[in-house]
Specification:
This protein is an alpha+beta fold. The protein has 4 helices and 3 strands, in the order H-E-H-H-E-E-H. The protein has helices spanning 7-18, 25-30, 39-48, 72-78; strands at residues 23-24, 52-57, 65-70. The protein has a 3-stranded antiparallel β-sheet with strand order 1-3-2. Strand 2 (52-57) and strand 3 form a beta hairpin. The longest helix has 12 residues, at 7-18. The chain is globular. The relative contact order is 0.22.
C-alpha cells in the first residue's frame, strides 16, 4: 500500500472502524479527527487504495454527499497499530 501509517490515516480508519454507521467527511471534521483542508484528497487516496469505501448519497441537492465506511483491507491495515494489553 502506498499510504504511510500517518496519524491522520490511522485516526480516520480507527474512527470508521468503531462507528456504528457510515460517516461523512464533515463528521470526521466535527469530531476533531481531521481538518477540513486536504481531508477529501486524503479520503480519495484511501479509497483508491481500498482502505475505505465511499458512496454518493442523494440529498435532494444538486451535489450528492459522499459517505464513507472502512473496508476489510482497512481493518487489516490497522492491525500493526493495535496495542496488546
Amino acid at each position: 500500500m502506498k499510504t504511510s501509517l500517518s496519524e491522520d490515516v490511522i485516526r480516520i480508519l480507527k474512527t470508521l472502524a468503531i462507528a456504528d454507521h457510515d460517516l461523512y467527511g464533515l463528521d470526521l471534521v466535527a469530531a476533531g479527527i481531521a481538518k477540513r483542508s486536504g481531508l477529501y484528497v486524503m479520503l480519495g487516496r484511501m479509497e483508491d487504495e481500498g482502505l475505505i469505501e465511499g458512496r454518493d448519497e442523494d440529498t435532494g441537492n444538486p451535489l450528492p454527499r459522499r459517505i464513507y465506511r472502512i473496508t476489510d483491507a482497512g481493518r487489516e491495515y490497522l492491525l500493526p497499530t493495535a496495542r496488546v494489553r
